[in-house]
UniProtKB/TrEMBL annotation:
Origin superkingdom: Bacteria
Phylogenetic placement of the source organism: Bacteria, Bacillati, Actinomycetota, Actinomycetes, Micrococcales
One of the record's GO molecular function terms: acyltransferase activity, transferring groups other than amino-acyl groups
Keywords in alphabetical order: Acyltransferase, Transferase
Protein name, as recorded: Acetyltransferase (GNAT) family protein
Domain N-acetyltransferase: 1-149
UniProt source species: Microbacterium terrae
InterPro entries, sorted: Acyl_CoA_acyltransferase, Bact_Acetyltransf, GNAT_dom
Secretion signal, residue range per the UniProt entry: none
Parts forming coiled coils: none
Length: 149
């Protein structure tokens, strides 16, 4: 198994993996969101980077990352938005390889950290993450945009 950047030929396999990610998190089926995210990842829009784990030549897992500025430390960092492994490939090391590739990408780009969030009840993912990173004390909030006026 190896990890490489996404390529245009990965479009169909990537879309299937990303749709699986969305189903896992109970997000509504949305072909438009999948298509838009693929474009961002494929073309590097918004600082996005797409990695894919392949078993032979078959894509089995993906990682969608993006660069962001950290004003508090005046550094750049890499944010792991999405990590997903096809159910048939789980437990075979794809997730670990993607995390290691993300760490290498961050080091190559001079990043100060690779950061991500996951669901508190995602025990399987957290077991993997705990072996590669340190959970922080920070709590995540979401606020809906509200028009001014």
């Amino acid at each position: 198994m190896t990890v490489r950047p996404v390529e245009p030929r990965d479009a169909e396999a990537w879309a299937e993996l990303y749709a699986g990610y969305r189903r896992f998190y109970r997000l509504a089926e949305d072909a438009g969101a999948v298509e838009t995210t693929w474009r961002w990842v494929r073309d590097g829009e918004h600082g996005m980077v797409g990695l894919i784990a392949v078993d032979g030549d078959v894509p089995v897992a993906l990682a969608n990352l993006r660069w962001f500025a950290r004003p508090s430390s005046a550094t750049m960092a890499l944010y792991l938005d999405d990590l997903f492994t096809a159910p048939a490939a789980r437990g075979k090391g794809a997730g670990a390889l993607l995390l290691e590739a993300a760490a290498g990408l961050a080091a190559d780009g001079g990043a100060s950290v690779v950061r991500w969030i996951t669901a508190a009840d995602n025990a399987t993912a957290r077991s993997l993450y705990d072996s590669h990173a340190v959970a922080t004390q920070w709590v995540t909030y979401d606020m809906k945009p509200k028009p001014r006026g």
